[in-house]
Specification:
Blueprint: E1 5-8, H1 15-26, E2 31-35, H2 41-46, E3 51-53, H3 59-69, E4 73-76, H4 82-87, H5 89-110, E5 113-115, E6 118-119, H6 143-162, E7 166-167, E8 169-171, E9 173-175, H7 188-199, E10 201-204, E11 212-216, H8 217-229, E12 241-242, E13 246-248, H9 250-258, E14 265-268, H10 272-279, H11 288-294, H12 302-324
Parallel strand pairs: 1-2, 1-4, 2-3, 4-5, 5-7, 6-8, 8-12, 9-11, 10-14
Antiparallel strand pairs: 11-13
Helix pairs in contact: 1-8, 3-5, 5-6, 7-9, 7-12
The structure holds 2-amino-3-ketobutyric acid (AKB).
2-amino-3-ketobutyric acid (AKB) binds next to loops.
Length: about 325
């Protein structure tokens, strides 16, 4: 992959883990993190490389950061997720499409490669739900999904029309113990871990049998790096490769957590908006194209993910308790 690298939305769920992974691989000074939010004191203490404030709906700001840092590759992670997108559809369009268009323009002018995450949200109720093919019907019914399909097409267009090296994957729900997700439909899976450890009880906003594709963060990071490092000659597709690590329902996840937290209890209070979104998404993706074209091979299944999540989250939450205790220094 061409360095230097710019990561937009770097303080979000994926960005906060992708930046350290890229820095470990290519060198701390080769990766510029950026976000529209300034870093907290803790984040500042943890960070090891350059950080820039960046509003990705402002093309001049993107151009300035890219030129000043001589950026060659952009990981563009800025996006409003599905549930928040339904509560603010106009903002979701402006942020998701406005930022992507401007990033692609800057990439075209400065000859940068671009990684753009799409999502299972790019599918809709008419899409085959089981073993969802790589190339299939995409008529999503959410604003998030509309921006994801439009984004996939725009990335294809910039590659075909201007030769910009655009690449991407369709992420399923991502589970992680670092920065929490916000505004998504699959967020229930992350919330369940926090509540299982803190209260031994979780009230889920999706029905017990809502099956969705999911992935553990280390695999999500691996996908983002591997697709950008793939030999271009092997790529038949470019943007929006189906990738998945596992699929499960809320009751299956609860049962797996209960193997480690035996008194964990789950109940359900369904949120109709998020349930409708989940019902319109695939149950399981066919990720054969990613496997064939760039060797996609996830490491974590449900059992391995739950074990690792609980271990890491317990450690994180007990460190926070010590830090927050009245006499902690
Ligand atoms: C969401 O739930 O909106 C996201 C996604 C699957 O894209 N996690």
């Amino acid at each position: 992959m061409k360095t230097k690298i710019l990561v937009t939305g770097a303080l979000g769920q994926i960005g906060s883990e992708l930046v350290p992974a890229l820095r470990a691989r290519y060198g701390a000074d080769q990766v510029v993190a950026s976000d529209i939010r300034m870093m907290s004191r803790e984040e500042l203490l943890r960070t090891e490389g350059p950080f820039d404030f960046l509003d990705c709906t402002n093309q001049r700001q993107i151009q300035d950061v890219v030129q000043r840092n001589q950026i060659c590759t952009i990981y563009h992670l800025v996006a409003l997720l599905s549930a928040i997108g339904e509560s603010k559809p106009q903002v979701a369009w402006d942020v998701n499409m406005g930022s992507l268009y401007r990033v692609l323009e800057v990439a075209r002018i400065n000859n940068c490669s671009v990684f753009v995450p799409s999502s299972i949200g790019a599918f809709g109720p008419g899409t085959p739900q089981d073993h969802t093919p790589q190339d299939t019907l995409q008529r999503p019914t959410t604003m998030y999904g509309v921006t994801k399909v439009a984004g996939e097409l725009l990335c294809d267009y910039y590659h075909q029309r201007f030769g910009v090296d655009t690449r991407g994957v369709r992420y399923p729900g991502i589970i992680s113990h670092g920065a929490p997700p916000g505004g998504g439909t699959t967020d229930y899976a992350v919330e369940m871990f926090y509540e299982a450890i803190r209260h031994r009880h979780y009230t889920c906003f999706l029905k017990p049998n809502s099956r969705l594709d999911m992935m553990y963060m280390p695999d999500a990071i691996k996908a983002a790096i591997d697709v950008m490092e793939a030999a271009p000659a092997r790529l038949v597709h470019r943007n929006a490769f189906n990738v998945t690590g596992m699929n499960f329902t809320p009751e299956e996840l609860a049962a797996e957590i209960r193997k480690h937290v035996p008194n964990f209890v789950i109940d359900y209070k369904v949120d109709p908006t998020r349930q409708a979104i989940a019902d319109s998404w695939p149950h399981s993706l066919d990720d054969g194209a990613a496997r064939q074209e760039w060797g996609w091979d996830p490491h974590f299944d449900l059992a391995a993910m739950v074990r690792d999540m609980l271990e890491n989250l317990e450690r994180k939450l007990s460190a926070q308790e010590v830090h927050d205790a009245p006499n902690a220094r």
